[in-house]
Design goal:
The protein is 38% helix and 19% strand. The strands form two sheets. Strands 1, 2, 3, 4, 5 and 6 form a six-stranded mixed sheet that branches. Strands 7-8 form a two-stranded antiparallel sheet. It has 223 residues and is an alpha+beta fold. It is built from eight helices and eight strands. The chain has one domain: Beta Polymerase, domain 2. A hairpin with a 4-residue loop joins strand 3 and strand 4.
Length: 223
């Protein structure tokens, strides 16, 4: 009987820890300002300028990075930010980031007036200028899985999933980011982007890559 109670107690503790991280992950992702459906040209230019600024410490650190998620949609469809997106989304490789001292990484971004904070649950960095919260940049960290040999997201929440849970892990073939990574225009800024156009989006947006998706507050009644 004591063994059963002990196992139940361990299960409850583990469940509580998992629930805590899930709540924090959701809160972090939802803690963003709701933007207008069509931002001004000045606001969109600020997004471009932030991307240009973020690229500088990434290049100083010699990190492989590339445009991804909604920012890649913007570059592919509009050659710049989506009209409602006041953020930039980039992806990096875990093996390269892990080789850099965390303090040195933070100081490198700080020299460019950028604050960088890592979310260990979600496996991504949130970056913004010290003087303002928006626009912001999200840098999602990927690594090659030793079982599937596909690129997959890192982070506490994702590491609890099996290697073949690719819809949640956003797995994609490493060939799509084979060096040298080509560049694409994002407004007046040129930034590395995965090969083969929208191919990577089929993995990053497995349930909607073929759709025209807009924020809920920007949709018309007929959508």
């Amino acid at each position: 009987m004591k063994t059963v109670r002990f196992q139940q107690k361990r299960f409850l503790i583990l469940a509580s820890i998992i629930a805590f991280f899930v709540v924090m992950y959701v809160f972090w992702n939802n803690n963003q300002e709701v933007t207008d459906c069509f931002m001004s040209k000045e606001a969109l230019k600020k997004v471009e300028y932030l991307l240009e600024t973020v690229q500088k410490p990434l290049e100083e650190l010699r990190l492989t990075y590339f445009l991804c998620y909604n920012s890649l949609w913007g570059a592919l469809k509009m050659k710049g930010p989506l009209p409602w997106q006041n953020s930039v989304e980039l992806c990096v490789l875990n093996k390269e980031v892990a080789a850099i001292d965390e303090g040195f990484l933070i100081r490198t971004f700080k020299r460019h007036n950028l604050n960088i904070v890592y979310n260990s649950a979600g496996g991504y960095y949130r970056i913004s200028r010290f003087s303002e919260l928006f626009p912001s940049a999200t840098i999602t960290v990927f690594e090659e899985d030793s079982v599937t040999h596909q690129m997959r997201r890192v982070g506490f929440i994702h590491r609890m999933l099996p290697p073949n849970a690719c819809e949640e892990l956003n797995c994609f073939p490493p060939e799509l980011i084979a060096s040298p990574i080509p560049t694409i225009s994002f407004g007046d800024v040129f930034v590395p982007a995965p090969r083969d156009g929208i191919e990577i989006q089929k993995y990053l947006f497995p349930y909607s890559w073929w759709k025209e998706v807009t924020p809920l507050n920007c949709r018309t009644v007929t959508e």
